[in-house]
Amino acid sequence: MQPTLLILAAGMASRYGSMKQMEGFGPVGETIMDYSIYDAVRAGFKKVVFIIRKDFADDFKNVFEPKWKDKVQLDYVYQELRAYTDGFGVPEDRTKPWGTAHAVLCAAAAVKEPFAVINADDFYGRDAFEKAYRFLTEKSNKGSYSIIGYELIKTLSDNGTVNRGICQVDENGNLSAIAERLNIAMKDGKVICDDDQQPKELPLNTSVSMNFWCFDASLFPYTEKLFRQFLAEQGIKPKSEFFIPIVADQFIRDGGTIEVIPTSAQWFGVTYKEDAPEVRKALKELVDAGEYPVGLWKQKEISTS
């Protein structure tokens, strides 16, 4: 069964200040998502499902349908506030949906096969997609998921602090826990976390999550069960969020395994507007080096690895 790529594109981009998922960063206006789709297709993925907001669905489809509909199967699902709440009394002052795990749950009707999950505004690199495809086609099952692990030093911004999910990896290379660390930045050659947790200094090669996960379709009923528990315990809080790591941690406690797959890829993204010129520069260098063509979707055929 061929795996699907699920792209989380419903975020509000509050720190960035605009809908960065739609912004062009490549030589002829390629979005970061375009590079992810290209890498996924050449790794072997045959289907892409976008999780978006219903209010900008038409604009979104007008951008991506003409480019990719002849290269890969496309589908769209909407993350809406009351999806899967089953009559739960949503607080009146709640305006945004429930977080990344809720977004994934909203795709249950569209995804029946093993699948990868990524963010729309992160550049992950070819190596990550090839390793994800290999895991999904060879190893994924209802008791075994995976996460692509990036080296912390390759995920920092020169323009401000970042938050990262720090992966604790056991002796078998499996995830034992994820700890969200805040306000991470390079200071005097060291990576420092300015939060209330310890340790303050983190090794440069610490494995971190950039929200690139590989799941079996059995994740959906499991997540739905946990979402009901989350609503009962946290639903009345107007800013509570149901994140993928919450599901992953419980999955591990319930006896599942999540393999941490290291990647050599350089991550980059646009957390801040000031990151945009560096992203454009990095993409131009990759194009100039022959790693990507100009106009990714204009290729008559995308050769798979």
* CATH architectural category: Alpha-Beta Complex
Q: Number of helical segments?
A: 7
Q: How many domain modules? A: 1
* CATH uppermost class: Alpha Beta
Number of strands: 13
Summarize the main sheet: 11 strands, mixed
**Low-pLDDT segments:** 12-18
Rg over CA atoms, rounded to whole Å, is 19 Å
Helix content: 25-40%
Overall geometry comes to globular
Task: Give the distance, in angstroms, between the N- and C-terminal Cα atoms.
Answer: 18 Å
The chain-level structural class is alpha/beta
CATH topology value: Spore Coat Polysaccharide Biosynthesis Protein SpsA, Chain A
Q: What would the average pLDDT be, to the nearest integer?
A: 90
Say which CATH homologous superfamily is assigned. Answer: Spore Coat Polysaccharide Biosynthesis Protein SpsA, Chain A
Elements, N to C (H/E): EHEHEHEEHEEEEEEHHEEH
Question: Any overview of this molecule?
Answer:
The protein is α/β, with parallel strands linked by helices. The protein has one domain (4-298): Spore Coat Polysaccharide Biosynthesis Protein SpsA, Chain A (Alpha-Beta Complex), CATH 3.90.550. The protein contains 7 helices and 13 strands. It has helices at residues 32-43, 57-68, 100-105, 126-138, 219-234, 244-253, 276-288, and strands at 4-8, 47-52, 73-78, 115-119, 122-123, 144-151, 162-169, 175-187, 190-193, 201-202, 207-215, 257-262, 268-269. Strands 1, 2, 3, 4, 6, 7, 8, 9, 10, 11 and 12 form an 11-stranded mixed beta sheet that branches. A two-stranded antiparallel sheet has the order 5-13. Helix 2 links the parallel strand 2 (47-52) and strand 3. Helix 1 (32-43) crosses helix 4. It is globular, with a radius of gyration of 19 Å. The two termini are 18 Å apart. Residues 12-18 have low confidence and may be disordered.
